[in-house]
Amino acid sequence: MPARGDIATGLAAYDGGDYVQALAEWHPLAKAGDPDAQTALAGLYFQGLGVQRNPTAAADWYHKAACQGAAIAQLNLGDQYARGEGVRQNFTVALAWLNLAAQSGHTWAARRRDEIAQGLSNRRRNYGPSSIMTLCNEN
Description:
Serine Threonine Protein Phosphatase 5, Tetratricopeptide repeat; 9 helices; 71% helix
């Protein structure tokens, strides 16, 4: 049975402040593997909009979307790793996710990546896409 829900309808609900409706639209799509819905749903969990705030659930949804190449999810997941919100703080993993997002043109991700890289050894800076794909394949 196909997933029910609609990204645009969820966005309209979100923009109107109806976060419960946005959740209802995006959740089935996210479960079906839609990276845009996964990213949007993660944002609801991270901010506690329409659901109890849950940074761990947010990280799980961001991870699913990030592994599919969703740059905003990569950026947000990298930031969660840098801050240790919902995940164990890991600057090396944060750097890798932020680097992927920066490669998609996100200037904030590039700035954040560069800040983190200054505090890491050269070995820890070389956590590239192949290492990220290993993380994606583990889950």
